[in-house]
Amino acid sequence: MKSTEGSLDHDHHRRRSAAMSKCFSRSSTSQIEHLVHLNAQKLCDKVLARQNSAPFAIVQAYSCFTGDIISHYCFGDSDCYLEQDDWEPNFRMLVDNFERNLHIFRHIPGLATLVERVPLTLTNLFSTEMKTIATNFKKSDGSITWSVGKVPTILSAILSSNVPPPEKTLRRLTGEAVSLMGGGTESTSATLVLLTFHLLSNPNRHKRLHDEISAITTDPLQLPDWKALEKLNFFSAVIQECLRLLPGVSGRSPWIATHEDLIYEGKLFSSADSLAPSLTYTIPRGFPVSISTCILHTNETIFPNAKDFVLDRWLDENGNINRELERYLLSFSKGSRQCIGRQLALCEVYVCAAAMILRVFPFLELYQTSRIDVDYDHDELIGKPSSRSNGMRVQVVDRSREPEMKT
Ligand code: HEM
């Protein structure tokens, strides 16, 4: 496995992760925030230009936004999905294909190794998206000087790190780039889709959020920075609830503690019941352990009415974010294998959602879309809606009319 994510051995994983982790800290993310703002505004312009055109799948639009940012940060040059006439092709199409077939790879050991052996030149013949990655490599020519402002790109950070030469080959870096592009494209756009649905289907909610963001914004084309947006309580509650309902990785990722036994201490039935008998399990080192984020996120004891979009659960009596509940939110996983792109994802969601809420949502309507088109139905690595769904579609209404902001 060529990516950090696919490294089985924990020490190997740690070394690979360390080579690029500085690119994903909160302060590095702030340094590329201008890219996020730029692309969020480009996305709004492109959606608004669809006035009176045919309805379209908003997930493709958001994937162009996320794909442009992560490709720019990886290679120093974006894939320019937002600049093409339509929303497709984009990297999500490749990811989606991969996810639909993932179960086959899980059940046929060795298939992944076989696929890995296919020469890149052959892969490029069949996949436009893989070809884009190859072209990006050629453009950057393996150079370690590519940068976004003063921030090194992710690949240049790996190339300039002290990992040994086999970690810097074209093949290994292609594997890493595919993992970064995949991770950086889909989960974030899926979160934005869910947020769009729950705001467009509830005008009161949209109005409240519009007012909250407007109160700290003088010009929707010059949004406040991500750290200021994060301080908005209602906005944060909306994002937390979206993350809860669309847990990043819906399947179980099996992890193995190699050096220590795991001691599990809990209560039978319910941790809230003080009379429930206590129990202790010891899971010997070497055994795979996994947890289902979906099951945790829909636990009725922790999240009552778990299937519903309930914002009050995230707000305390003073309207501040309920930090206590956050520890049960496992969207980005925890520990050494947690999502490396967490800060970037949050920055993208806050900035993009703020731009869309202020500039686009007043002119956007759902088109033949209901909860079946967004609700979790099955696992394809990330949670997907029912295969009977046509996807969440929207259309831009006549912008000459006064935007409707019902109370
Ligand atoms: C809302 C958006 C996102 C969610 C919910 C999410 C969720 C997750 C989760 C749950 C994992 C752990 C996977 C596992 O246990 O097997 C993960 C890993 C990862 N994510 Fe994200 N992610 C998001 C956005 C991003 C972004 C923007 C990037 C940008 C590069 C990214 C890159 C990665 C990578 C590279 C890994 C593998 C990390 C490792 O194994 O060390 N993700 N993500």
From TrEMBL:
Residue numbers binding heme: C339
One of the record's GO molecular function terms: heme binding
Bias kind Basic and acidic residues: ranges: 396-407
Superkingdom classification of source: Eukaryota
Statement: the UniProt record of this protein carries the keyword Oxidoreductase: yes
Pfam families cross-referenced by the UniProt entry: p450 (PF00067)
InterPro entries, A to Z: Cyt_P450 (IPR001128), Cyt_P450_CS (IPR017972), Cyt_P450_E_grp-IV (IPR002403), Cyt_P450_sf (IPR036396), Cytochrome_P450_monoxygenase (IPR050121)
Keywords for this protein: Heme, Iron, Metal-binding, Monooxygenase, Oxidoreductase
Cofactor annotation: heme
Region (Disordered): 385-407
PANTHER family reported in the protein's UniProt record: CYTOCHROME P450, CYTOCHROME P450 12A4, MITOCHONDRIAL-RELATED
Family: Belongs to the cytochrome P450 family.
Full protein name: Cytochrome P450
Source organism: Clonostachys chloroleuca
Lineage of source species: Eukaryota, Fungi, Dikarya, Ascomycota, Pezizomycotina
